[in-house]
Amino acid sequence: MPVKKFAKEIEHFHNFLRRKGKKKTYQKDLILETFLKTEGHLSVEDVYALVKKRDKKIGVVTVFRTLLSLADEECGIARKITLGDGLTRFEHCYQHPYHHHIICNKCHKAIEFICPELDSIQDEIIRKYNFTPSHHRFQTYGMCEDCRNNRQVEDNQDYDTEKIFARDALKMALNMETRCLAFFREAAQRTIDPAGKEIFERMIPEEEKHITELNSELDELVQQEKGLDKAPIFLHFDSGELEEMIPDLSGYENRGELRLDSKSAIEISTKLNQSASEFFKKYADKFTDTLGKRILMNFAIQEKNHCDLMKQRMETRVQSGMQ
After folding, report:
1. DSSP secondary structure letters along 272-307
2. Are residues 166 and 51 in the same domain?
3. Same domain flag for 171 and 297
4. Is the Cβ–Cβ distance between 175 and 242 less than 8 Å?
5. Are residues 169 and 274 in the same domain?
6. pLDDT of 176-210, one tens digit each?
7. Which has the closest alpha carbon to 30: 54, 8, 12, 60?
8. Tell me: the pLDDT tens digits for 278-311?
């Protein structure tokens, strides 16, 4: 039965069963496959109804016990959550970004999100009390906008959180690159020194090319998952942190004029790429291995490569005696 798409999860589950001295069965594999193919927050009854369509002989007790195994901390394929309606539900967590929930008490809609800043505050408090955590859960209960305004609540489409995280990671990288492009355009326009202007002008098409590649990657991802472009924001990040990396050109003005020679232009460009690389690497390290983490890490590597390219340009100009 093993499906290629879920090969890692299936192998991980089989290894878990082996360590626990439990048998691997067709029924358990079918329940696992059914659970993995269905995104969202699923109750035992939800999974049981789906499994029954494939095999009517499987009982609800088998479904319940298998889901408990998947949610075992040592297994880590599923995570138990509650949405305020008295039911225990299960959601994917294997190679999915750990996230939090905002839950409506009336319609029980759950909005998922990740916020590294929030997690950092929590980690700081844990360290302050020298506490060793085993697990944690942050859920906010209240009433959604639709229920407050007595609007009909649309069916809450369930999305693959790994895909949404990847989408938002690409948008975060695009946000950074767009800011960099705007900076290089402004610097090229304002710099009076011809050699410095040339450096900044060379940066513009390189940034444009990277933006085009990121947009292409984003379009491809959105096409793979129906409705992904309309899914709520999942990754919440402080855009101010990205803005802080952009150099302030006013600090390089002399009597209202911007005179940046090639050496200064290369140094500024190198510093910007290096800051972006270090920031995105540190940001990616906050997450477990997911597609979104790999996108953030890949962006950090690309910025590092761009930084190395700028250093090579600097060495070339120094060797040629150009200023």
Report:
1. HHHHHHHHHHHHHTTS-S-HHHHHHHHHHHHHHHHH
2. no
3. yes
4. yes
5. yes
6. 999 999 999 999 999 999 999 999 999 999 999 99
7. 54
8. 999 999 998 888 899 999 999 999 999 988 888 8
Domain range spanning residue 94? 4-148
CB under 8 Å to 114, separation ≥6 — which residues?
97, 98, 99, 100, 165, 234, 235, 236, 287
What pTM did the predictor assign?
Answer: 0.77
Count structural domains, the chain.
2
| DSSP assignment string, 8-44 | HHHHHHHHHHHHHT----HHHHHHHHHHHHS-S-EEH
Three-class SS state of 5: helix
If asked whether residues 220 and 308 sit together in one domain, one would say: yes
Q: Give the whole-angstrom CA distance, residue 191 versus residue 253.
A: 9
Q: Which residues contact 311 (CB under 8 A, 6 or more apart)?
A: 270
Residue 276 to residues 282, 283, 296: CA-CA distances in angstroms? Answer: 10, 10, 11
Residues in contact with 209: Cβ distance below 8 Å, sequence separation at least 6, in sequence order? none
CATH code: domain of residue 121: 1.10.10.10
Q: How distant, in Å, are the alpha carbons of 41, 63, 80, 99, 136 from that of 106?
A: 16, 28, 20, 22, 25
Percentage of residues of the chain with pLDDT beyond 70:
94
Question: Do 301 and 195 belong together in one domain?
Answer: yes
Whether 36 is in a domain gets the answer yes
